[in-house]
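Quick start: what a row looks like.
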Amino acid sequence: MVVEIKNLVKTYKNGVKALNKLNFQVREGEIFGLLGPNGSGKTTAINCLLALLNYEEGDIRVFDQEMKATSYNLKKDIGLVSQNIAVFTELTVYENIDYFCGLYINDKTLRKKLVEEAIDFVSLNDFKKFFPKKLSGGLLRRLHIACGIAHKPKLIIFDEPTAGVDPQSRNKILEGIKRLNEEGATIIYTTHYMEEVEELCDYIIIMDKGSVIREGTKLELIDSIKIGEINEIELNNHSTELIKDIKKLANVLSAVYDNRLLIVKSGKGKSNLIDILDLIKKHNLEFIRMHSKLPTLNDVFLEITGKELRD
């Protein structure tokens, strides 16, 4: 295992228990999704993993060795791309990457090669001499990533790497993360964008109140919830009686009407769509369009935590 966390307990001075017997493992070569609402303990878990925080109970092993504050031999093989961009405004793009790479690589010849590779990897060749304040948000994010991965770490932790960037930059970042993984890096990935988790992650855990409350592959998580089908039907109008009748259908879990859109969630098994359309006709209503879809990770998250993932 690349990471093993067992029975981790962390309590802050104000009495808040941020981690409550937390357990999870990250296997070599996988992209591991770490999800949870604000306050669930994700950031605390990462800081403990990096030996930036002390904890009262539990064990942390990285690359099959105990992780301590003085474990510099382990830390040199870890890269961190934090949510908050941390680069030096007085240094150029090249100088920033060279500085962070230099924290791990002393050999100047090797470091120059690694810096050039990192610049090429994030497509910043045309911006080597630019200062950070001259870069767009997307370019700044890519610089931040280059600083975190230039020393070729075996384990890379990405914390909200696409926050606040445009779609083109987001796609570029996601493509880069896939390529890092294909080149051998194990990745821990946290984000508020569920579609990114669905696209990237091999294995996912969902945390709340300092513990893992659900884990598995994307398909395993989706299969673990009650929802089997979601029907979205746009109506010209609606009636409270229609909603009541839909809720009486045997396999319906919920039915809500919001802003002209009727959303009906049904359990696994028989589809309710025909019955719903019959009820709409019975109530002398007309639909403009309809769309049926399978549940997503977002539906999993909301069902088991009852909370929206928020920035």
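That is the whole record. The longest strand covers residues 17-26. The domain at 3-222 is CATH 3.40.50.300 (Rossmann fold).
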